[in-house]
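Troubleshooting entry. The earlier prediction with S-adenosylmethionine gave an output that would not parse, so I re-checked the input for stray whitespace and re-submitted. Clean input:
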Amino acid sequence: MVCADNLDACRAYIESLLVAEPPELEKFEAQYRRMPRAQPPIGLQVSTFLTWLIAVMQARKVIELGTALGYSTLSLAAALKTTGGRLIAVESDSEMVAATAKNLQAAGLQDQVDLIHGDAEETLSKLQGSFDLILQDAGKASYPVLLPRCYQLLRPGGVFAMDDALFLPMGVRADLSDPVDLAVRKLFQEDCWKATLLPIGDGLALAWKKFSNLS
Ligand SMILES: C[S@@+](CC[C@H](N)C(=O)[O-])C[C@H]1O[C@@H](n2cnc3c(N)ncnc32)[C@H](O)[C@@H]1O
């Protein structure tokens, strides 16, 4: 079993094996240094896992909440290019929307994405259809609030992925970690989800929307 003493070494080993896809993701570190207001990206471990998941599921309809500079947006869009899918990406901060749009253009992925400048809750309330995957990485206060709407928008068998799921044990301040913890507990306790939590990045909670006839 991996213990705290060798966890960093394990993470460094895993990251040494991963390849950023698209390669433009490697340019983000410099961008974050230039724009310190931008919130941190999901990172290489989580983006690689979501890329893998999109391929395994052959996901074609995906929603992302919270793009910041677009690290996760580029990663999801590149994965969806291989499945012939599309991404709806929602971000409330105009500066971040502009940066995401520029980064998508530079990577040639703009046609894969409907980039919406708006509030996640308001945007979700207007969307129709059934989606294969939803990535929640917007404001942490929205995590428990948006769960029921995300559930409605997923198809049975669809996956809800929630970043920063380990904020509470990481000791992140309460106004951020408390709503994340509440949402994590709902995913594990509510009968309609089958949940797990991966200790990659800052924690990725994953919940599968059960088919109504299965437990
Ligand atoms: C942690 S960052 C997203 C990082 C991004 N997923 C990545 O991997 O690069 C969270 C983003 O969510 C946006 N945000 C916060 N509350 C929001 C809301 N209610 N609706 C839409 N976007 C929101 C913030 O402006 C911020 O850019």
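This one parsed fine. Strands lie at 61-65, 86-91, 113-117, 131-136, 154-163, 193-198, 204-209.
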